[in-house]
Amino acid sequence: xxxxxxxxxxxWEHAAVSPPPLHAFVAPLPDEAxxxxxxxxxxxxxxxxxxxLLGDGERDLPKHPDWWRKPDPLTVAALARRTGISSERVCSxxxxxxxxxxxxxxxxxxxxxxxxxxxxxxxxxxRIGVCPDCLAEDEAPYVRRTWTxxxxxxxxxxxTVLVRTCPECGAKLRLPGLSSTAHFAPDRCQRCAHRLxxxxxxxxxxxxxxxxxxxxxxxxxxxxxxxxxxxISWPVAVALFDALLGAVWIDTKPVAREILFARIARxxxxxxxxxxxxxxxxxxxxxxxxxxxxxxxxxxxxxxxAVRPRRQMQRWPTLDAAIxxxxxxxxxxxxxxxxxNRERGWWRxxxxxxxxxxxxxxxxxxxxxxxxxxARLVAIADVRxxxxxxxAAEVADVRPRTLYRWIKRGAQGxxxxxxxxxxxxxxxxxxxxxxxxxxxxxxxxxxxxxxxxQNEALRRFGVEITVYVADRLLRLYGPxxxxxxxxxxxxxxxxxxx
Length: 498
Ligand SMILES: [Zn+2]
Ligand SMILES: [Zn+2]
Known about the structure:
This protein is mostly helical. It has helices spanning about 5-15, 35-40, 50-55, 75-85, 85-90, 105, 115, 130-135, 205-220, 235-250, 255-270, 280-290, 295-305, 310, 320-330, 350, 360-365, 370-385, 390-395, 400-415, 415-420, 430-440, 450-460, 465-475, 485-490; strands at about 225, 230-235.
């Protein structure tokens, strides 16, 4: 190599290794969070973004971990100057245009159980969740703005439940600070380098995604449109969600919560996920409640044996008065005593003047051996205590029409008449016809639900059968494989050492 050639190579290398920073071009990616872009931008220079992109006077501005959500105009101007990306574009990577302080967006897992039961919920800064599917598709892995929203449960693109802790080592996932010089790899756990794109996926169910979309669409404009309620401001929505979820978590018994969660899981067509997906569980509870407002909430309060909304509101003494009034007004509609009672049916007087109180009816239910009598007594006790028939039916897991029938029978013939089995039992030939119809189902289609059989019995013979009868018919004649219950039971038996 001639000296001239060496000189040329040196020149070229010199130019490539230290180009003036302002000529680098790393464009922001769709929905990218500002810190993610800055970290990617600084990557080729092996320098911390704050040193590379900010002057001495500006470097102190982004010290607060959440500075970038509502960035200071001076910082934005400085970043725009250095990177050659317009101020508007830089701002679009933040939440600058979202109204109010956004405190509720910052808190990690904002509506999760922990927020309601621990005295001082931890607030580690810069927590994020990631979508394994997004990361798997990324050419250059980056952090989305939406992943930094504390209440978000699932990826809006893939419907995958966000992963907030490393599945390998349990470290909480976080965005690095701007003074970080470490290699920026948001697709890996910062502690153990586990590939997050390989994390097990859990898909959110459609009702939960729909509810999340509702909030996500309303949030930038500051007003959330809730079914059955209409538009309310973001701070009111946050306070209302707190009140509803607080009613679920605070001072309730685990057994009662299990009953509620089982119902939610069934109605939404999936389990409201375990401990690992607390944000998801919160949105699942709310999604379920708002599928039928306020009836579902009424039913939830009854299932939880929770205190009434007026007392519930006392849990939130520091709420701003104007917000508090709005939330109280909404929450109180979830209790029939508090609103104009539209149910002035002729049977109402019978319920209201039953010699037994709600608690006495429930005590009687507790002593009953037959499940159908027990269920009816509890439902009648709920209505006696002021629950609407719709809500009491929801709690009893029957259709309102069915509960109305029980009550009307009671009003005509006394309590005992309400508790008696439906007059029509299936005759032998009717049962055989239903069995034949069930057996003709394809084993490949999902197992039928009991209400399908109940409806068919009603349609064909005008006979009302219970879930127990329907379930037995399905189990005896359905072409579906038996669930292997035995296997699971055997596991729970403690070993005997002799
Ligand atoms: Zn995704
Ligand atoms: Zn890890």
